[in-house]
Write a structure and sequence with these properties.
Layout (H helix, E strand, L loop, with lengths): L1 H7 L1 H31 L6 H39 L4 H27 L2
């Protein structure tokens, strides 16, 4: 309920969008720096291959982080409301919040596979 009230506020929506754009931008910048460092280290592979890996892994981590944050926000708000009504379901509510965090972990795993395996 509180998240819906916050989402109705125009300033909150704008700040959320700015935070999402900054997260993806910083992920891409980090990927670019890592790609140039790996290229200078002589790790092999062409420059375009390294940049493609870096950008792909940055997008995977950035978007998974945004999705995971949104999932935890929605599930957390619902979990707090449910626990306020019935304290016996706190363990189940915490489990649903933790499942939302798994999205970000999957994004990190995909990024590691892109960088080190492919």
């Amino acid at each position: 309920m509180m998240l819906r009230v916050l989402w109705a506020d125009k300033r909150f929506r704008i700040l959320s969008i700015i935070a999402a754009v900054l997260a993806v931008t910083f992920a891409l910048a980090t990927a670019s720096v890592l790609a140039s460092a790996q290229e200078q280290g002589g790790m092999g592979g062409g420059a375009s291959n390294i940049y493609a890996k870096a950008i792909g892994s940055a997008i995977a981590v950035g978007l998974a982080g945004i999705g995971g944050g949104y999932a935890v926000g929605v599930a957390g708000a619902a979990a707090v409301s449910a626990v306020a009504e019935n304290r016996e379901i706190s363990g189940t509510a915490l489990l649903y919040v933790a499942l939302g965090e798994g999205i970000a972990i999957y994004g990190l795993i995909v990024a590691l596979v892109i960088i080190f395996v492919l």
